[in-house]
């Protein structure tokens, strides 16, 4: 049984810090009393589902059923974050299926820790598939698009 009085204000303040910083847990110790506050983060997006493949009829060499991560033209995510296909909400996407791209051209943005990171094409070619949706969370090495 706990002999100390529970400091509800400290717990509330720690919970607020969790929300503000988007952390999943925080621990605080003072005068021999340790308080640990944790929260379960539930993602409501459909990030766990299979990627949606966009294909053009003129690209029979790329099929939606093939493994995009093993494709030689696969552009993979260099980081964990949220992918954005356009420079700002409501704007046209950086690229569409069928667009010709050059090496070094901006293809999309990945937001990680409130920083917008432009993802550039590693080679010149034609965008054959876009494998992610706008505002979708991605993991490191997730196939983003296929360029041939």
Strand order of the largest sheet: 3-10-8-5
The N- and C-terminal alpha carbons lie at a distance of 66 Å
**CATH architecture type of the largest domain:** Beta Barrel
- The ordered string of helix (H) and strand (E) elements is HEEEEEEEEEE
Our count of domains comes out at 2
Please tell me what the overall shape is. elongated
In round numbers, the mean pLDDT is: 78
Record the SSE blueprint:
Blueprint: H1 8-21, E1 25-30, E2 33-38, E3 74-76, E4 81-84, E5 100-101, E6 106-112, E7 115-120, E8 125-130, E9 136-138, E10 143-147
Antiparallel strand pairs: 1-2, 3-10, 4-6, 4-9, 5-8, 6-7, 8-10
Could you characterize the architecture of this molecule?
The chain has 148 residues and is mainly beta. It has two domains: 8-38, no CATH class; 68-147, OB fold (Dihydrolipoamide Acetyltransferase, E2P). Helix content is 9%, strand content 32%. It has one helix and ten strands. The longest helix is centred in the N-terminal third of the chain and has 14 residues, at 8-21. The chain is elongated. Residues 42-65 have low confidence and may be disordered.
């Amino acid at each position: 049984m706990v002999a100390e009085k529970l400091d509800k204000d400290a717990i509330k303040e720690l919970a607020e810090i969790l929300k503000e910083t988007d952390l999943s847990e925080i621990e605080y110790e003072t005068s021999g009393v340790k308080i640990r506050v944790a929260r379960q983060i539930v993602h409501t997006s459909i990030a766990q589902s299979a990627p949606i493949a966009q294909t053009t009829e003129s690209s029979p060499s790329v099929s939606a059923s093939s493994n995009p991560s093993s494709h030689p033209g696969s552009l993979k995510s260099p980081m964990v974050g949220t992918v954005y296909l356009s420079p700002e909400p409501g704007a046209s996407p950086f690229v569409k299926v069928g667009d010709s791209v050059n090496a070094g051209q901006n293809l999309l943005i990945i937001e990680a820790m409130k920083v917008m990171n432009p993802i550039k094409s590693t080679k010149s070619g034609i965008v054959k598939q876009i494998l992610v949706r706008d505002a979708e969370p991605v993991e490191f090495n997730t196939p983003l698009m296929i360029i041939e």
